[in-house]
Amino acid sequence: MISFAKSRGTIILIVGHVTKDGQIAGPRVLEHMVDTVLYFEGERGHQYRILRSVKNRFGGTDEIGVFEMTGMGLAEVSNPSQLFLSDRSAEVAGSAVFAGIEGSRPVLVEIQALVASSSAANPRRAVVGWDSGRLAMVLAVLDARCGLGLSSSDIYLNVAGGLKVGEPAADLAVAAALVSSLSGVPVPAETVIFGEISLSGDVRPVTQAEARLKEAAKLGFSRALVPANTKAGGNNLKLNSCGRLQDLVSVFADGEMV
């Protein structure tokens, strides 16, 4: 097929399925032979579908296209951030808006968390749309550095809209949603959050901060909780710096996040 495509100058599309682990079924050599690998992702209960590039021999990877399932078929979504946040409720404890980057595109999504008391010996951990190992790390840092005692609680985490978030920049938004659920204090609806959490409890800067803030300002957000030394880039956003995870916890401990 490769010889045919090169001799005729045509494009060949090979459609396959993935395993339960999310990997392409069959010999992995097929991935190395082709020029581009595209994943068509989506949850059964959501109307959104995401076309994600995980390999591109002639361009950037991790680019996404967002589509909506309609009666006329798939329709392109020109502004995914607005779509993912369209059904978001007003200030509710356990919800935080994360300003992420998918490929070269800034995308805002809602991260929902629920902390519930548990009497089981092994509390439940349910994660949808994020890495469960990353959640375990954030919980461990919140326990060890901030003394929240989350290890004995059931934890439920969900990325709304069916999007799968993979970058560490979501750490701070996840932590904010968890602490918000635990304290009962909502994150202000006009606030976006991003930042990477280290094992020491420090909040580290992330890449493309200006693009994230620009997208947030375009959608009407007025403030951002960001790592220290992050610049607004003329987006007229009020920045609240967070150098350590304890700073985040202390804000919610006061009973109101301002």
Detail the topology: elements first, then pairings.
Layout: H1 2-8, H2 29-33, E1 36-41, E2 48-56, E3 64-70, E4 73-76, H3 80-84, E5 95-102, E6 105-117, E7 125-128, H4 132-146, E8 153-159, H5 171-183, E9 191-193, E10 196-197, E11 203-204, H6 209-218, E12 223-227, E13 238-242, H7 245-253
Helix pairs in contact: 5-7
Mean pLDDT reading: 86
CATH-defined fold name of the largest domain: Ribosomal Protein S5, domain 2
Say how many strands there are. 13
Strand content: 25-35%
Element-level helix/strand string: HHEEEEHEEEHEHEEEHEEH
Query: Unreliable stretches, pLDDT < 50, 5 or more residues?
Result: none
* Tertiary shape: globular
Q: Which class best fits the helix and strand makeup?
A: alpha/beta
User: What is the strand arrangement across the widest sheet?
Assistant: 7-8-6-5-9-12-13
Protein name: DNA repair protein RadA
Pfam families: ChlI
InterPro entries: P-loop_NTPase, Ribosomal_Su5_D2-typ_SF, Ribsml_uS5_D2-typ_fold_subgr
GO cellular component, one term: cytosol
Task: State the main characteristics.
four-stranded antiparallel beta sheet; alpha/beta; Ribosomal Protein S5, domain 2; 258 residues; seven-stranded mixed beta sheet; 29% strand
Give an account of the 3D structure:
One of its GO terms (cellular component) is cytosol. InterPro entries: P-loop_NTPase, Ribosomal_Su5_D2-typ_SF, Ribsml_uS5_D2-typ_fold_subgr. This is DNA repair protein RadA. The structure is a single chain. With 258 residues, the protein is an alpha/beta fold. The protein contains seven helices and 13 strands. Helix 4 (132-146) links the parallel strand 7 and strand 8 (153-159). It starts with a helix and ends in a 5-residue tail after the last helix. The mean pLDDT is 86.
